[in-house]
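Consider the following input, taken from an annotated entry for PDR/VanB family oxidoreductase (Variovorax humicola).
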Amino acid sequence: MNADHMTVRVARKVQEALDICTFELIEPEGRALPVFSAGSHVEVHVPGGITRQYSLCNEPSEKHRYLIGVLKDAASRGGSKAMHELVNEGDLLQISAPKNHFALAHEARHSLLLAGGIGVTPILCMAERLAMVGESFEMHYCARSPERAAFRGRIAASGFADKVAFHFDDGDAAQKLDISALLAQPSRGTHLYVCGPKGFMDAGLGAARKAGWPEAQLHYEFFSAEVVKLDTDRAFEVKLASSGRTILISKDQTVVEALSEAGIEVATSCGEGICGTCITRVLEGTPDHRDMYLMPDEQARNDQFTPCCSRSKSPVLVLDL
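Applying the prediction step yields:
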């Protein structure tokens, strides 16, 4: 085991809800795993050469295992399908050490946790951590139906079950979540955490921003995103600061693809602008940010961008490569 990646064994694979499985990962020799905090994820090297990020959803005090939940997505590009169909108990997997881009702000007086579908995985871990340390919070869990809501039994058996409200798309209107009403009155001491499908994320974050929530109190993590392509996209150039070499990026290429063709490899993972693995410093020029990772104020500085999906507004970007 090293600091960057490790081999784990699938100790248990459990059907938690319709199309959702959990995988319990352990160190093959029974050694302790690297510590993690609520909101962390690991990158899993899935059969077929795919790398996917999955949030850890067990209690961070547990050192003997990692638990991940995986939704078998009908629109899967191969990752979740492979996890469900090809990965079984006893199999060995390569994973990264835990990373956390979705950490709790423990200075908050109150935490408002919003989970949509499989987005419950990091949110549940946060709820358990907040309950353990005695901090104020409430959790709203939205799912298409009870059959598709994972961890209902775990939540019901917890000491914080009374802080969790379930909202089902197929239920009566009275129990559905009114996000705009919930977020209509921002509080200086309340921090908002949102995780789920893009539509759910857009609704939650959009309502919060419309109501005037400060960006510093908004925390979120996207699981997937579509790489945005526009009819107005045009070719541009990137210049490598180390050598002065200039590379043309055609209108139909990503920067990562063009650099790879030129023999220059940039570390990537998601390929969708949600993980931050490929972030590259921009020394000159103006990026066209299309990621879901950088905060709005970070994008506004224009000193870094995600070459897996973002482009350029200026004819040339000078990169710290």
